[in-house]
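REQUEST ID: PR-0412
SUBMITTED BY: lab tech R.K.
PRIORITY: routine
TASK: structure prediction, single protein chain
INPUT:
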Amino acid sequence: MADGVQATLDTMVPALRDLLSKGIFSETEIRSIVKRRRQYEYLLRRRQARKADYFRYIDDEVKLERLRSLRNRKLLARKAFEESEHRKGRTVESRAKEAGSSNGDASIVQHIHFIYSRAIRKWRDDVSLHLEHARFAKKAKSFKQLSRIYTEALQVHPRNITLWIEAASYEYFGSSEGDGGRPDSAAAGSVANARVLLQRGLRVNPRSKDIWLQYFALEFHYIQKLRGRREILKLGLNKKSPAETAAGGDDVESSATIPFIVYNNAIKSIGDDDIEFRLRFVDLCHMFPETEAIKAHIMATVKRDFADKPEGWIARAEYVAENRTIRGQDSVGFLSRTDNSDEVSVNGLTATHHILNEATDSIKSVTMYLKAIHFVKHLLDIDAEHASHHAIFLGRLFEKAEDARVSSPALVLEYAEYHVYTGNADKSATLLREAIDNDKECSKCAKIWIMYANLIHRVGVSATSTSDLTKDALRSFAIHEHGYMEVIIFLFKQMVTLPTDKLEGHKRKTQQADIAELFERILLLSSSSQDVDANIPQLCFLYLQSACAIGGLDAARKVYESAIFSSSYAKSHEGKSEEDLGAMRLFYDACIKLEQSGAAIEGADKKRLRRLYDSASNFFRLCNKNSIASEYRGRRNMENLL
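STATUS: complete
OUTPUT:
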């Protein structure tokens, strides 16, 4: 081990001597560098090597390189000043260029590459090491090393998509890295090399969507580069400069066909059942000007292959609507946009509406109608100028669904919301009531009941009382069915907040009895119900306030007796969130405050207070909130309730 370490250190001697002779580091600093490197070399040669040792070694060497670079710039600046080169018009950069680079200048960066290579040999399967090495090479502008890094990484990890994309990106965009780009300018910005890499990646990973998409984007980047060059040189789109002709360069027209080829091959490889993949090509087209032809081709394949799927029709409608919003805009950069005419009308419908109309004619399903309705609602949100036009078409869609006898709870809700939007709350309530009475599936939909109850409560569109509605709902649902708890909790909140001052005595008693029955049901089912967030403490607090306002302290006592001492809610800590615990603390404090509101606390009142304090203390102790439990015990002791 010692011989190996010494041999490695011996190779560093010429570079360190050069740094010493140039005055970058002092003798003491050189000794410190050698000592530190020797320690790391021994660590790297241990029987059980650790990645952390390699990374610490690299980190220290990176810091050392920063120090060397800073001192080197200062040294050059000082020499330039001393020689008065600024009088001759020579900059510090020109002085450094004339001086040339020495062995020591690149030695630290080369040593870091050496450490990375040793780490990769030990852990070849760790792709993150290859990527870290590549990132360092980019930062250090070690472009020749970078090509080797990607080549070795891809040999070991041919299935890693990120590596293929990064390597191809480097081949094409690498010339823009740093100041001055890659030194091998002949290879800089090579679309041919980038294409070869991506094609090799696709041979190994033919079903990689990301590589196909990057290949597609690469071709557009190249087309834009050619167009920009010809615009600057004032050439026609299909003319080449003499230099390009000699080099066999591409023209825009021939290059513009390549994205079509890439797309067609991509959908053959991936299959005909992935519409999202095709739409990602459209998203890429939006990043470049003059892509209307390829977008139209993509949408034509969507029309051809997805005529029986709602997603395909909606994608086409989105495309037409989006094209309408971009027409008439200014040119993008130096490229002129094709002049498009305004959106055409077909039988009084815009092109977007016409596609949706065709879609619902072709596919008479709930899914198709819902997707079409949601899309038109989206148009209502983003296209305020034509909101009335979209609203009329939305109404036609609902009527068409009724005529086609296409129905579901979701469609009923959408239609009811549409009536509310158009100011027909009465129609909305009638529609919901008929759905509840005539459709078994709708009668078991919690959202329909809740919307209907909202209309009755807020708008007053029906003579049905909340108590009657609650009884109807309870008859429609079985206690174990999904949505049962959601409905009774909503109706309970409505009944608790209803004003009772206008109710006659017997009606008020009936309503209070109904509320109490609902509350008992909610407490009983709260522990077993998983389909809704009941927030029992909040309901208890709401009911406590209502009962106190109507029936005074005695009514309030019945509420907290039922919630705290008769139910199992306050005797268990399972399933309680921080929000529940905070609400429960407020409920306990409200109950205690009610009992303390009397002029004198004696006898039975004192006993009730003590039970409340003890219950609160035990509850929070079960929930592992010992500080809160101790607080309630302390408050009980301060009031002499021992």
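NOTES: Residues 1-123 form one domain.
REVIEWED BY: pending
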